[in-house]
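Task card 7
Instruction: Convert sequence to structure tokens.
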Amino acid sequence: MGALLLLLALSFSVHKMSLARDTISSTQSLKYGDTIVSSGGIFEMGFFSPTNNPSHNNIYVGIWFKQMSIRTVVWVANRDTPLTNTSSVALQIISPGRLALVDGNGSQIWRTNITSGSVQNNPVAKLLDSGNLVVKDANANFLWQSFDYPTDTLLPGMRIGKNLVTGLEISVSAWKTETDPGPGQYRTSFDPTGFPQIVFWKGGNKMYRSGPWTGSSWRDLQKWGLFVETSVIINATEVMTRQFSNTSKLIRFVLTSSGTLQLDIGENGTGKWNSFPLVPIDGCDKYGICGPYGNCDNNKNPVCGCLDKFVARDPVEWGSSDFSGGCVRRKPLNSSSSDGYGFKRYSGVKLPDTNVSTFHKNMTLQECNHACFNNISCMAYSTLIISNGENVCLLWFDDLMDIRVVVIPEDGQDLYIRMASSDSDYPSRSKGKKLKIIKLSSSILGGILVLSLASTLIIILYRRKREKIHLNLKWEEDQTLFEVLTITRATDNFSPENKIGEGGYGPVYKGVLDDGKEIAVKRLSKTSKQGLGEFKNEVNSIAKLQHRNLVKLLGWCIQGDEMMLIYEYMPNKSLDSYIFDTQRRSFLDWPKRFNIINGIARGLLYLHQDSRLKIIHRDLKASNILLDIDMNPKISDFGLARSIGLNETGAKTNRIVGTLGYMSPEYAGHGIFSTKSDVFSFGILVLEIVSGKRNRDFSQHQDHYENLVSHAWKLYRDGTSIQLVEHHLDEPHNLLQVLRSIQVGLLCVQHCPEDRPSMSSIVHMLANDVQLPIPKEPGFFTEKRVIEPSSCLDKEKSFSINGLTISSAFHPR
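Output:
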């Protein structure tokens, strides 16, 4: 008997040893009690019970995270056909190259498919460190992969969508219950109908949708992008989206059996998960809750209302909180009406369901307007910039569903809805008698208008020439001298709703020109201390500058007391609105912050060295860094900039202007400015971007005031610079990159200008893994003392600017 037991033990041992750590070959099988582990030890595969009680439950073959204290299953093979008897069941490779779960009678309980019907030579199944189980032939070609057949979990590297050639649809479906991995009633797919979007289903009904792809993220799933980078493919053969991890942590997105999309992040070393619900978050996430043309606003009670110029379809039902009927236009569309048509713009909204839309690439907003206007069935249009500046025009051809006010207005879109002319912003068409009258009037007055226009043109050209001579402005061919009426119309008469900011120069408004181009208008305030001098300085400084990290000046407007600068519009506003905001700071992960640091550095390098003029900005700060649709930085506000000779290094002024907290000691104390004073400001910016704290407002200790620079220096000196990192950030994947950025920032804020690196050196240090110099003690602004720039020695000196005492710090002891 003992010999028999020994023989059985030896045969079991031989079986276990014959099974490779991460592979099942055609001569091997995976039996109950066996496991295979990915080469990096991240994932494990084998037989499991959802309740961890095999004697009382069904058994499944699955993949789970090996390192977690609680088994977290990410994929199940036989989710529709659980095992009740595992004594003779094995997972093995069968001809012609399938992976199959086979019982003792040879019956196939579950099996994979393959694209080719021919017999494969030496196929193997391998568990990868990504969590993907693949079947490969002898040439390493994938015959099948589990990532094409997800269960309830999305892992980095997985994709969802549809292959339009083979018909393969990849979607995620929840478990029935927490202990039953069978397909439940909730499902997530990448819907290719119309313009693709992520849709969550409950049975055959939509439960939630993401909104359209913007080129860098899902407009309504911003948190998704904090942990994975997403790519989208939309072409004639496939509509797919794939996620790639941008963090070193273990993460997964799981669609729970209750219908919630949840993000799980593994805690380092603990084997536990931190879970964060992603959707639904609020009542407005419920699909179509307010019906057609209804507008959901979670900050209101009730949450449902009608869009402006719309009324409830059934006021009685609406009054009883039944919003399913939605809203209708206050003035119906009528093709036979003489009122004609136009479009009304609705800003800051989540675009409606795109399954009733079509899209066209490479269309401007004006072309999109014409495409919709010329098709009477088109109910609305909008444009998206999806990648590399490529425009996509969206056209809707049915009632608009699932519109909501977005949580952060800047994350919303502009939607243009077809309306009767009297309810539209800018009427586009007039019909019937009105049109005939206009034509008749045009014929009668044509001659008079020609003469009047000719006279007006001569006067305008004369005035422009006179204004240009008087102001001595320099403009380029691609810049325009705008008329006041054009800017007034674009900004809706400088409507408060279009105001997007205000600085020393005056308020800034968002506008839309007649051709659909979005602009930002900086309007000189009557009470501004910055006047004609700063206006001329900004125009003449930036007119000849062209760089991807400098905001582009489109033109200006001068008429009477009005002086306005017209810039390209930056949809994400300024950097300070993100890094110093408790809610929005989470949208800037470390890769985005590092990209912003590099972009600012390249922009400054251009100003200091590579442009036709040598420009010292003199007011570099977070509020003067604007962010485009892809969160790329652009340096703005050149009202205080100074140009110097190409062979000069700096100058001196008796009028010290700028922003406290960003000024270098030599400039704040003695009016000496140079490219190195811009470098000092850049260093402050780097430390603010890393820490999420303002230099001036930073206070680490209750017993005395300490600014951010001094705090960063002390942490560096103590070897604990990592403590400076914004605590809302997930642990950065590239820790050395973060520490390098902090050290570069400290090199920039060294007290002596000659110790600070040039912008060319800074760009090189950020982009390459080179040995960095050891920074010297920086110039602080914490006490009423200043270090003399001429000698870099501590000397008591207090000074005042515009009646406000500015204090400089001495070196810490």
